[in-house]
Amino acid sequence: MTKNHYDVLVVGGGISGAALFYELARYTDIKRIALVEKYEKLAKLNSAGTSNSQTIHCGDIETNYTLEKAKKVKETASMVAKYCLQYGHEGKFLFAHQKMAIGVGDTEVAYMQKRYEEFKELYPYLEVFDKEKLAKIEPKLIFDENGKERPESIIGVGVEGGEYSTVDFGAMTESLVEEAQKIEGKVADVYLNAQVTNITKLGDMFVVMTKDHTFTADFVVVNAGAHSLYLAHQMGFGLDFACLPVAGSFYLTKQKMLNGKVYMVQNPKLPFAALHGDPDVLAGGCTRFGPTALVLPKLERYTGGTYLDFWQTLQFDGKVAKVFYDLLKDSDIRNYIFRNFLFEVPYFNKGLFLKDARKIVPSLQLDEIEYAKNFGGVRPQVINKKEQKLMLGEASINPGIGIIFNMTPSPGATSCLGNARRDVRLVCEHLGRTFNEALFRQELLD
């Protein structure tokens, strides 16, 4: 066997690829694994701390999660905190913050009270905060710029502290890879500046080509964001899926406005996250508001090109056109898309955004926020052409021949260790290797 042959090769050095790399090294008897990343460093795109809201999405304050989804997400979210605690990263890139979802106005207040009743068994630590309590723990939610109390009814449902809620996923990516490489008796190689140009099947193996290297592997997992679908299409897989890249932007305040994370009630019609305020761990705890949602004709943000890659993964045809038509004929969605486009237009953007952010902080002033330059990433929203609808959540293409392609929009980072476990099981089954589920459970679950 050549030195460029691996049992498993992982494509993509973001949090999802790093989580799989770590689990293969730590919890299986697979000896040779490699991670290839197209850029000069790990977590350069959507896993960077500036590209996402740094939130462990465990389902307690995400009002767009059903109870079923919350149960699944809660388990994978706890794995993230357990991993960080196992290696002593609390206070370094894992933080506990106060967090809540707020309902503003009678309809939302009633909705949040009902949701609390439904979810309190799953999250026994949740509390209901009335206006008086909110005035103490998050005063900026209650008072306007003149110190007057906001007129609408408002409640928060959340937790005052002690729950791990915030992670710099970029730093966690680096940690996962570092820990994987420390494990004795394993080859765990990492190749940076190694963009995969082509993957082909050769007998029982795969040949993976980059500009400078040719690798062979018995199993390949592609965790390359929107480019996972691009590479799948190149091999003739996943042709029933198309990709709609949605970019999120953020605004930063110049000082700490909120003591913790404040989420809002999601519009059930919209597949994108409602605006929220988060303490930014990379900006000294200043509050970051966002994300906006901008449909972009490219697969990556803030890098050159990828426009052609977008057209190839969109696979525009009558079915995709129908999905677009169905989305745009709904006035809520149409107005939302247009408004989010205006959030990117200089001179208009700040004033418009301010209106939305004032639902959280009524006293917020124009000179207190600025557009966060180079913040935000791209989430690949997957279109299912067979069902002619936008899929929410992860899409995984597994043709059953020893290669898997994953696309993980939010909460992909939160689910990274859970998604990796799913793939580790598939890899071990295919290669006839062993997954040490007992050790996995002991370290990341129990």
Question: What is the topology?
Answer:
Elements: E1 5-11, H1 15-27, E2 32-36, H2 67-86, E3 94-96, E4 98-104, H3 106-119, E5 127-129, H4 131-137, E6 154-159, E7 164-167, H5 169-182, E8 187-191, E9 196-202, E10 205-210, E11 214-222, H6 227-234, E12 241-247, E13 251-253, E14 260-264, E15 276-279, E16 287-290, E17 294-295, H7 307-314, H8 318-328, H9 331-342, H10 349-357, E18 369-371, E19 378-384, E20 389-391, E21 395-397, E22 403-407, H11 416-431, H12 437-444
Parallel strand pairs: 1-2, 1-11, 2-8, 4-14, 11-22
Antiparallel strand pairs: 3-7, 4-6, 5-6, 9-10, 10-11, 12-17, 12-19, 13-16, 13-18, 15-16, 19-20, 21-22
Structure description:
This protein has 446 residues and is of the alpha+beta class. The chain has a single domain (5-97, 161-444), classed as FAD/NAD(P)-binding domain (3-Layer(bba) Sandwich). The chain has twelve helices and 22 strands. It has helices spanning 15-27, 67-86, 106-119, 131-137, 169-182, 227-234, 307-314, 318-328, 331-342, 349-357, 416-431, 437-444; strands spanning 5-11, 32-36, 94-96, 98-104, 127-129, 154-159, 164-167, 187-191, 196-202, 205-210, 214-222, 241-247, 251-253, 260-264, 276-279, 287-290, 294-295, 369-371, 378-384, 389-391, 395-397, 403-407. The strands form five sheets. Strands 1, 2, 8, 9, 10, 11, 21 and 22 form an eight-stranded mixed β-sheet that branches. A hairpin with a 3-residue loop joins strand 10 (205-210) and strand 11 (214-222). The longest helix is centred in the first third of the chain and has 20 residues, at 67-86. The radius of gyration is 22 Å and the shape is globular. 47% of the residues are buried. The mean pLDDT is 92.
